[in-house]
Structures are given as structure tokens and as C-alpha cells.
Amino acid sequence: MVTPTIGTTSLSPRVWFTVIICGLGYFVDVYDLILFSIVKNTSLTDIGVSAAHLQDASELILGAQMVGMLVGGIIFGVLADKRGRLSILMTSILLYSLMNIANAFVGSVEVYALFRFLSGVGLAGELGVAITLVAEIMPSDKRGYGTTVVATLGILGAVAAYLVHELFNWQTAFVIGGLMGLALLAARVRVFESGMFKTAAEKTVTKGNLLMLLTKQRIGRYLSCVAIGLPVWYVIGILVTFSAGFTAESGSIATVVDGQSVMWAYVGLAAGDLLSGLLSQLLRSRKRAILLFLLLTLASAAWYLLTPDKSATMTYLQCAVLGFGVGYWAVFVTTAAEQFGTNLRATVATTVPNLVRGSLFPALALFGYLRKYYSETQTTPRVSSAIIVGGITFFLAFVGWYFLKETYGKDLDYVER
Fold first, then answer.
1. Buried residues in 219-228 as b, exposed as e (16+ CB within 10 A)
2. In sequence order, which ranges of 307-341 are alpha helices (DSSP H)?
3. Cα distances (Å, whole numbers) of residue 367 to 67, 374, 381
4. Which of 320, 392, 394, 413 is packed most tightly, with the most Cβ within 10 A?
């Protein structure tokens, strides 16, 4: 059966249908991705982890999930350039949906980490391939709107994860996520393949070859794309996920729920994604939009870490502002997709965000090491550790931004040779 394709010259209803379905797929992706950060304390306590070991177990499982995304990003990105966007989207959503359901039945930290690793492998294929598909079916001067819709819809999945957890226990929350993913598979049958991919597939050119990214003319572009996204998961994976600990270190006795912090951060992120995408269109520049949001994120992180005696309300407000600051995620992934030709585009758009997510693993390891080191000499080991990890993160991000190439309005119908 020949897969129908969409051109890139008009905004027909079937183009917008594809955009919406990709957005809903990312909605389920984010729901699953962030659910552990919301249910970690409850779920780990239920399987027998003591309060003294909750932090270490959380860091291990979250790190396993992110390593899985790094592995899956490579696998699914390469396959999406070799075999097509749609088949890989469907495979990835099937894998993480099944693993989501499996997470409801874990009984140990080790099994929990294994299933989160496998979930991460599946989750890795969703966003990058969806953004690639949308970027290739939209007109060049309008694709920022399409990718913004995908990202904004997707980020709301985190809000849904929190609300579902409030209504049901953690096991049911995982099952609901899996069932939503399986339901989307039926809708994806009506999604069309990219015309650019079909054209590139007919050419005698190497597709999905990671080694092509290591050449002198491409490696700089690739690393710049990765670097600008690093602050996103520093903020979400460290500052927001462990907000209760940071609030306590500010000298406060307020009770902060990490899951609620995550929800407010993603409310902010959804708003930031919408505004940054629109801003990049209005400014006709991806780079300027990214710079503005990087500066906002840096200022917000400093405010968050250095505010004394915070109330719970203040912490939630700061998490929302932090989320808004890193809401350049849509522009970041779109920029990565626009940097390379059709035969490498999905590989880049999938590996770049998952390298960023995977960077949380060494960031968490460094944060954990410094936290234990400073706990012997300081009363604020989390804050001191976060400042050091954040300093490294933002330095790399601004260097990456400096060398980044502007891609607004770029014609994507070409291949890398």
C-alpha cells in the first residue's frame, strides 16, 4: 500500500489534522514523561522505599528514563530517516504506551528503573519525528505555527498528569496514560506521510547516517542545537522536580508538593511555548526568540535559588515563571529540524532533544555528588550544587546560541551529501 503524502504549499484541513494528531501524540508523550516526577514519592513509598532513600531512588529511576530516551532518540531518529516518519511514530507510541501500563505493576526500584528506561526508549521517538513531519508539510514561512501547536498541546500533558494523579492512585494514572497512547494509534492511521521524505527516499543518497553528523561542516551545527536546549531539563529535572528540598533550604517551613510544582512549571511552559513560537514568527528569527527566553530563564533560576524563606505559593509561582522561561522548547526543536537536509532531519530532530533530556543523567549525577559533598559543610547543599550545575549549563547554552545559524523561512526541500 502506498502511503499518501502532503505537499508543502498550502494549509489544507488534512495538514492541520496531521498537526493536531501530532500534538495529541506529544500530549500523551509528555504525560508519560513527567508522570514519574509527580508520583515518585507516593509510588516509591508504596513499593517499600524508606523516606531516607527516596531522593537516591528518584534520581536513579529518573536517570534511567533519560538514558532510555538518549538510546531511543538515536534508534528512532535513524529509522525515521531510513523508513519514514509515520511508521516510527506509531512504533514509538506503542512501546511507551505498553511500558506505561507495565509501570503500574512494579514492585521494586530495579524493575521500576527498567520499565522507565524502556518507556524512555519509546518516548524518544515522538517529539522529534512529529516536529520533522510537521515542518515538512507546512509552508516555509508558516511552519513555526504548526510546530508551536504541537509543542503547546503536548506540554499540557503534564497538567493532565497532575490532575489525573489527584483523582486516581499512581497505578491507575500510569494505566490511563498507556490507554490514551493506544487510542491514538487508531487516529494516526489517517495521518499522511511527508512528501519531502517520499522524494528523498527515491534519491540515491545516504539516509539516517549518524557519522554524517560528525563531519567538520556539520558537527558544529549539531552541538549548537544540543547546547541551547540544556537549560530546559536543568530547570525541569533539578530545580522543579526537587522544589520541596530547595524551599526547605531557603529557611522555610512551608509544605511544598513536588508534583504541584511540576504542574505549575508545565503550565508556564505551555504558555512559553505558545509565545516563543509566535514571537519567532513575528520577529522572523528563531535565534532572537531563543536568546530572549534564555536570558529570562537565567534570571528566573537566580531568583528561584536565592530567594530566602519562601512560601509554598512563592515556590509555585517561581516554578511557573521558570517553566515559562524554558518555553522555547518548540522553537528549539524546530530550529534543530531546520538545520539539516531531509535525509538527516529526523535523526537530528529526534537525537537533539533526547541528548538534552539525556544530559539530565550526568547533571543529576553531578548534582547528587555535590549535594552530598556540601552537606558536610553547608546548610544549603542543594542550592550550592544547583548553582554550579546551572553555571555550566547556561555557559554551554550561550556558547551554542552564539554559533547557531538562523533558519527562519529556510527551504527544507534538500538533502545532505
1. eebbbbbbbb
2. 312-325, 329-338
3. 17, 10, 9
4. 320
